[in-house]
Q: What sequence folds into this?
């Protein structure tokens, strides 16, 4: 496809809705450079003050776990129930623990 | 089994349906039957194109708004429609098809958009009627689609629904002003309602029995309610709003039916519907020509932006 059709690379947009909140994926935009990416993301995803901070990152730079590998990948956490507080027996009468 | 599914692994297909039945959303990299992907490619891109082409009948009125207030509102609404198109293209691109390709399919006539946007916005009351009826119908459809099984589509719908309510209310406000204005203004409002009522009902698509892809789409929860269910919902909501305005919908059989709890109505002229889908609506050629023209005129911007982006990247590396 020639350059006249090229919409530029895809960038993923993450928005923090208020200070202290986690960044959440909002969607994606096309842009030809970082500055344009963040401006396009602002115009597309925050027309009503949805955010106080924003990240954009090129989609191709994101590393993701493949769904077919997910079970095996997360498996190591399945057999460590002692990581949960409910694993432990605390005698009755003990408070604030 | 459905012919479209004969190449699918039966085990994977079973797991897929189990996920759908358990209301687990499907994400881009998950297994999905090819027919599911193809249905989404068609439906989401059609939805995206509709948002973008829908900017045309309204954009026509920006320079002719009756006040600065109205102009600011209309520009914000049209900007939202562009934004909605972008949310949807972004969702559609997760299916492995590029934005360039989607636009090419639109220009080649392979992809459709909602036929309602082939009607003309003849006067200011039409801008009211479009917001009230066309956006109103879109909301009924989109509220239902918030629960669609494909994650990116569902998330785009949630965001769109949050913004869409302003669109309908600004339209209804215009209708209130017109209906409570001079006799001539009220007549314009009635005329706009007359012209936009059936095109709005057509937005929900053919009857359930004649919608060839509906059953798999329902089974896979791409669609959560059928065309006819959604259409009836819209009619039941909207007729009382028309009554409040002192206007009447252009259908003498449209009356509340105590027995069914719904409004009765006269069926759509389906010949007109199919003509518009097939490209013979009042403005099909004009809408597509305009889209192609603007896209072609933007080519130099894309080329310059690529060059500028590359230059900047070099500087950053250096």
A:
């Amino acid at each position: 496809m020639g350059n006249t059709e090229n919409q530029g690379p895809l960038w993923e947009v993450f928005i923090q809705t208020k200070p202290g909140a986690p960044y959440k994926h909002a969607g994606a935009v096309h842009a030809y450079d970082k500055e344009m990416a963040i401006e396009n993301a602002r115009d597309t995803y925050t027309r009503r003050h949805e955010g106080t901070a924003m990240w954009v990152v090129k989609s191709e730079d994101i590393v993701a776990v493949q769904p077919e590998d997910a079970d095996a990948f997360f498996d190591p956490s399945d057999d460590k129930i002692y990581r949960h507080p409910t694993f432990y027996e605390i005698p009755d009468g003990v408070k604030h623990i | 089994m459905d012919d479209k599914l004969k190449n699918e692994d039966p085990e994977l297909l079973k797991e897929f349906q189990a996920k759908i039945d358990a209301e687990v959303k499907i994400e881009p990299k998950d297994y999905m039957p090819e027919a599911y992907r193809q249905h989404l490619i068609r439906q989401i891109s059609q939805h995206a194109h509709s948002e973008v082409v829908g900017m045309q009948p309204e954009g026509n009125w920006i320079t002719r708004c009756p006040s600065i207030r109205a102009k600011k509102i209309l520009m914000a609404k049209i900007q939202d429609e562009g934004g909605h198109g972008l949310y949807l293209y972004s969702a559609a691109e997760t299916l492995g098809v590029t934005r360039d390709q989607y636009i090419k399919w639109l220009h080649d006539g392979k992809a459709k958009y909602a036929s309602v946007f082939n009607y003309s916005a003849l006067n200011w009351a039409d801008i009211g009627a479009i917001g009230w009826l066309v956006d109103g119908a879109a909301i009924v459809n989109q509220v239902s689609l918030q629960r669609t099984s494909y994650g990116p589509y569902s998330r785009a719908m949630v965001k769109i629904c949050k913004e869409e309510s302003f669109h309908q209310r600004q339209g209804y406000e215009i209708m209130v002003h017109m209906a409570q204005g001079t006799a001539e203004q009220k007549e314009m409002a009635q005329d706009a309602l007359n012209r936009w009522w059936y095109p709005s009902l057509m937005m929900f698509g053919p009857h359930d029995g004649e919608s060839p892809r509906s059953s798999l789409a329902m089974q896979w929860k791409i669609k959560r309610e059928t065309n006819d269910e959604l259409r009836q919902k819209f009619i039941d909501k909207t007729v009382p709003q028309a009554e409040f305005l002192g206007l009447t919908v252009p259908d003498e059989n449209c009356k509340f039916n105590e027995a069914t709890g719904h409004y009765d109505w006269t069926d759509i002229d389906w010949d007109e519907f199919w003509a518009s889908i097939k490209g013979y609506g009042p403005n099909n050629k004009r809408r597509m020509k305009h889209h192609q023209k603007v896209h072609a005129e933007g080519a130099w911007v894309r080329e310059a932006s690529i060059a500028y982006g590359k230059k900047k990247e070099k500087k950053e590396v250096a």
Remarks:
- The interface with chain A takes residues 27, 29-31, 76, 79-80, 83, 86-87, 90-91, 93, 98-100, 103-104, 152, 155-156, 159, 163, 296, 299, 302-303, 305-306, 308-309, 312-313 of chain B (CB under 8 Å).
- The mean pLDDT of chain B is 95.
- The first strand of chain B starts at residue 256 and ends at 257.
